[in-house]
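Tutorial sheet, problem 5. The two components below are modelled jointly, 645 residues in total.
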Amino acid sequence: MTRARSPEDDTTLGRRGSWLLGGPMLVFVVAMFGYPAYLVLRTSVASGDGLESGGFSLTHYVTFFSDSLYLDALLNTFVIAVVSTAITAVLGLLYAYEITRRPGLRTVLLLLLVLPLLVNGVVRIYGLQLGMISLDRLLLDAGLRDTPLGLQYSFAGIIIALVMFQFPFMALAIYAGLSRLDVSLVEAAQTLGAPRRAVLLRVVLPLAVPGLVAGSVLTFAAAAGTFIIPAMMGGGRVNTIPQMIYTSVSQTSQWATASAFAVVLVAILAVSILYSLRRGLRSTAGTR
Amino acid sequence: MAPELSRRSLLTIAGGLGAGYLLAGCGGDDEPSATGASGGSGELVVRTWSGVWEGAVNAMASGFESASGISLLNDPGSDTLTLLEQRPGEHDVAWLIGTDSTRGMTDGTLEPIDTSRIERFAQINSRLSDGITQDGELSGVPISYTATGIIYNRDRLGFEITSWEDLWREELRGQLCIQNAPSIGGLFLVFTGARVFGSGPDDYEAGWKAIEELAPNVQFLFNTSSDGISKLASGSVLACVTIADQGVPLREQGIETVIPEEGTTYSIQSLTVPAESKNKDAAYEFINFMLDQDNQVEWARNGKAAPSTTDVTLPDDLASELLETPAVAESLWPIDWYEFGQQIPDWTTRWQRIFGS
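Model answer (structure tokens):
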């Protein structure tokens, strides 16, 4: 004799199934993110500077917030992230819009976007540096300038490299949203006499907001957290928080100091990103 | 029948794969790997740096294996001291620079070298070993060293550099590159400044004042030594302070290298024995092998670094590639690596305040 399965049984089975399916992912997240994050947090409030230091102290945070060296590095990190995100967003929006507008060139334009991603990042930075050296030489030889532009090893150099690195991700994120754009809306606006800029700002931009938000979050997080680009393009002349973290750990093994810096950086990133997401989602809701 | 056969086949394949993984896991010790688990007395796990050093150790490995009958597993990589601390017992011998070997001794990661087991200890340049000795305990055995020099483009600079003092000249404004802190290559210039502009080698305040005055001449700080050299070769800077021997391949491009006669700083490549090494006998055998006269020459050729022993004569072709002549070996400034290592955190912060915006 078998009993017919009731809806309650199905629900229970469904719950178990969800746990069975979600369990490995949960374990993965806890092991790969949760535990390391806990360790960093715990180490940041240790009384000593070693990995095994116990106790509780806010010394490392006090050090951070009371020293202009670290506050300036934080400001640099934030400014670099904001400026590179803004520039990448504008360029990405224009590029994504062009892909949408020109179906015949879509494959080529998408390929051009993805191809640089196949080249190793360090090689791309060296390529950029050589390009800047060549540009300087060209301008000097042509008599157009008396001194080099000074793009290398500067704030500007870091921003240029970050824009170069993040542009494909931003453009692809925006294009994912714009690819669903109803071209007849653009045509209707143009037929009614809207100038090109108005079409872009009032028709295209609102539809691109979700992609812009996604791309901006990616770019902002990557720009604020990158070590290699400021290290190579800044030439040691622009201090950023990731560089301070690296310096604290490499050779000097100041784990607690580095952990406190990392927590501050993540907290500021999280607040900024959550704020942007809320603003972005509100704008998107308005367009629906 | 068909479904049963299929299930059986599936089980067979799965079993085969599982057995394969198990066998692969058991046989994994035969290959050098990042985990580099140490085996019995017939196996030596060596930790070295990547790049040139990795190739140099590989080149020496077969000679050591033939001479000793001990198999050598090379495990190259960075952050060696941290690795030794976190994974004790996995390495038997490790290459470290002066600041790291002394730090390893202080925190107990390394054991003091038993100099009575080093056959040619007396032949090692005492300038190299004194700085890594404290209370009679040696933190590592210097195998080779690289002197710091000034590499520059004489034609474009317009004058010959002969002294460290020349780095501060107006003609080098914005045309110099030096290594970034906390790497020791840049911080060496504090010692240089102290000696050249101060009252003596310990006059660090004079050294720091000199660094502040040098800052306008520095175009950029490099994190890897090859970065400085490549920018010099490309013409974006006129001079670079780095490992002197790196300038030798650039001779044909009109790039000159000088190790000033007043003396210089240097980096040592020393072999250390981790406290938790499982095969210390093999570690000492390897150290003795590396100090053998012929092997010192081979190491110099492969590692592009000068031998640490004073009774080694380099063949002409090799001597022309290494700038650390006997005169240079005599002019090395004494460095207390224990003290230097302790200063690095504070010095790095001070360095960042001067050079960073």
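Marking note: DSSP finds 14 helices and twelve strands in chain B. Full credit if you identified this.
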